[in-house]
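note to self: dont lose this again. the chain is below, predicted strucutre after it. 164 aa total, dont forget to put it in the shared folder this time
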Amino acid sequence: MADDEKNIEEIEETPEVEVEETETPEPSSENLVPESEPESPPAKTKSLRHVPRSQRRQRPKPVRERPTTRKPITRTEKPESELGRRQERRGVVISDKGDKTIVVKVDVIKSHPKYKKVVRRSVKFHAHDEQNAAGVGDTVRIVETRPLSKTKRWRLTEVVEKAK
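---
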């Protein structure tokens, strides 16, 4: 039995040494993929076009310095004659058939905000002419006023140039 115990001790000691040697494999063998496993296709990344608002990239806004004291609001009183600013237009009289009424054609020239093309259009206004002073073809200046009738919202201020 003494011999059996020695043999058992020798057998127990030898596997420990072998296990230690097999437990520390070479680092290059860890990186190798076994040939029996097929490679999986790479994972597809989601399109970043439609990302929920909560998951979108945040751009921090620059922080503005706040003044320590606020400026008081001051309002200057307007004179009574200048309560509202009335529009003034210049145009050509195209009709004076109505009594105390003239029809004025005003050409409006504007630049298109996006395409920058010059756009010309004309607008016809019915204006009140108290003295029936304007005739067809006259260049006149009209000013905006309170509604005088269903279509009249303008008043003749002066005849700039008489027709020839």
